Amino acid sequence: MSTLTNAQxxxxxxxxxxxxxxxxxxxxxxxxxxxxxxxxxxxMPTAIDKKIYFEFKENETDSTCRIYSVTYNAYLEFDHNNxxxxxxxxxxxxxxxTNEIKVLGKSLKGFDxxxxxxxxxxxxxSSSAALECGFASGLNxxxxxxxxxxxxxQLSQKAEHNFVGNKCGIMDQYAxxxxxxxxxxxxxxxxLHAEYIPADFKSxxxxxxxxxxSHNLADSEYNTRRQxxxxxxxxxxxxYPEVKSLRDVNLEMLEEFKAQLEGKQYQRARYVIEENERxxxxxxxxxxxxxxxxxELMYGSHDGLQHNYEVSCPELDFLVEFSRDKDYIYGSRMxxxxxxxCTINLIEADKIDEYVAEAxxxxxxxxxxxxxxxxxxxxxxxxxxxx
Length: 387
Ligand code: GLA
Description:
The chain is an alpha+beta fold. The protein has 2 domains: 12-198 and 380-386, Ribosomal Protein S5, domain 2; 204-375, 2-Layer Sandwich (Alpha-Beta Plaits), CATH 3.30.70.890. Helix content is 39%, strand content 24%. The protein contains 10 helices and 13 strands. It has helices at residues 89-103, 127-142, 149-164, 171-178, 218-239, 251-256, 265-287, 291-307, 314-324, 352-367, and strands at residues 21-30, 42-43, 45-58, 64-69, 74-79, 111-117, 183-188, 193-198, 204-214, 329-334, 340-348, 372-375, 383-386. The protein has a 6-stranded mixed β-sheet, covered by helices on one side. Strands 10-11-9-12 form a 4-stranded antiparallel β-sheet. A 3-stranded antiparallel β-sheet has the order 2-7-8, with helices on one face. Strand 10 and strand 11 (340-348) form a beta hairpin. The longest helix has 23 residues, at 265-287. The model has no long low-confidence stretch (mean pLDDT 95). Alpha-D-galactopyranose binds at residues 34-35, 37-38, 126, 168-169, 171-172, 336-337. It is an enzyme of class 2 (transferase).
């Protein structure tokens, strides 16, 4: 496996590339419901209009796979009969997906693939899921593997567990593949039942503010949070064997175990139970057009993530605080795994420019870091085109 330097020449196949499959694979936002997916709870994501683009074609070999990332000027070549974890993080997404396809007993041949991205990494808009799911969707079409869309999301999640080492939930992959234009998804992560809700925010828009920080605690703390939740469930199961996840626990039940739960398990579980309730309430508020109510739930979500789940960081907290006294901002919260990335804000569209200028100046003054905005609109999931 090699990373291209400018001095190296790309294999001939990449000059004058004639693809037979094209894929556009989007990133995602999440309106509310953070760290609930791996607890079998509820989330409210949708795909966005920022994507990773793939082109695929079969090559003349049985098992040589050649991948060129234009965006990173990086080249990867591997044999799909001989896969192992790489030291380079991005390579593990494609190697992991290839591996999971093989685990399912599907047969592949040699192929070439070009990848271009307009999704920023580290911003919490899930470039990882876009890479995994787009790659899986491309191979599915190229080799007629017969995988359903849901199977693509599930094998991509497994790739992230087994090759990348991040024990993520299903939200990002599901949103990237299954979203519908101009809708948000109320996803039940236990049954994978999805309700598509029109993304109607009246005169408001969803605005992402990118802190441009990505603290390296993110991966290890993510897996720790998951373990803390699972440990809490194990304790509760001793009395209530029917409990399979925090999804099945309410606050009253949780109180019974307060003394028995160790370390931070109680406060982690409490956050998850409350966040699930907020997602359900947010659904009602959005359907009724009550943006104020929805906005308050966003703030509630942030408070829980900051104080009980402890996955926020000073930069995210600063931006959420900065929005609180602005009556044209209905809600604001950190989005995604945490420890950096973006806040998501529900803001009157005609106030965006003014607010961004003010927030960027204050943010720079405080942290000496440039604030970026990412304009997003709820979009269609993965699009596969056969040429
Ligand atoms: C990351 C994970 C998701 C989800 C979020 C937090 O994006 O990939 O599965 O857990 O964090 O809500």
